[in-house]
């Protein structure tokens, strides 16, 4: 017998162009202008772009060179993470006025479960509107929100009326909303997966819904069952205030391409030291070490090794990173190196999520 699905009212709050908006807030001369937060050097990367810059195709994770090519009048501003964290804490305090079930995803977005909230308010839609107004009053920044029956749909919904808007997908609207959705809008479906779905004739949620669980599992592995469920509105992941870390790492982009393995080892030692500090701060250790290499032609390669015990010391991390570095000959000069640890000792604490197929039939005020 299927277990009843929990009745939830989930809000996803997403700050609009957060880093760029903070810079425009603090410096009136930047308001209304195309700005990018990040490095302007030839090795720089855009961390965030204002909406004025986005009109020219500038977006986060884009190289500075490409960004300048798209928008010659682009203004680069250095990142100020202390300031972003300060404002993020102010926003978090507003969330906690309504619920303790707050799951931060980053400095600028979070899930809130307001099914039972501190205000005793029956409407998640009105709560989201109140929160967005309080954020505006306290920080001067705009936020967008998505409201629905689970985290998956709420996150998709928060993109619909950006910037400075919100969208509610009520329980009775879930099916139609997901069926009409372009498959690229499904959270977790990246460019490669979307292209594969296109080749299989899957362009919308309706197309995805026609495929059986067996078919999707055969073509997409474990993710197939996830796609089968979410297109039916089934996503049982709870809002977790103490979100369990899945991995921890650090990486460095170099001012000049590196071809000498001696120089690479020096950089890896610095990265390993940084990871050791982060592991100590987080009080975690890991079994799987992954070396990330980005070559001068921008091709990306990862090499991983899993050992039988948990490690957190710089020496052991570096030893395995060296082994992975020498695993095969370098294809080209290198512009970026990174190390990450996964398979952490927090994994055993992760709650197992239910995977039963459950019919969603929720009736409560949104």
Automatic annotation (TrEMBL):
Keyword Hydrolase set for record: no
Residues in coiled coil: none
Single Gene Ontology MF annotation: DNA-directed DNA polymerase activity
EC number from the UniProt entry: 2.7.7.7
Subcellular location, record wording: Cytoplasm
List of residues binding Mg(2+): 14, 108
Domain UmuC, first and last residues per copy: 10-190
Keywords on record: Cytoplasm, DNA damage, DNA repair, DNA replication, DNA-binding, DNA-directed DNA polymerase, Magnesium, Metal-binding, Mutator protein, Nucleotidyltransferase, Transferase
UniProt-listed CDD domains: PolY_Pol_IV_kappa
PROSITE patterns in alphabetical order: UMUC
Enzyme class: transferase
Cofactor: Mg(2+)
Site (Substrate discrimination): 19
Catalysed reactions, semicolon-separated: DNA(n) + a 2'-deoxyribonucleoside 5'-triphosphate = DNA(n+1) + diphosphate
Active site: 109
Cofactor: binding comment: Binds 2 magnesium ions per subunit.
Sequence similarity: Belongs to the DNA polymerase type-Y family.
Physiological role: Poorly processive, error-prone DNA polymerase involved in untargeted mutagenesis. Copies undamaged DNA at stalled replication forks, which arise in vivo from mismatched or misaligned primer ends. These misaligned primers can be extended by PolIV. Exhibits no 3'-5' exonuclease (proofreading) activity. May be involved in translesional synthesis, in conjunction with the beta clamp from PolIII.
Subunit field text: Monomer.
Name of protein: DNA polymerase IV
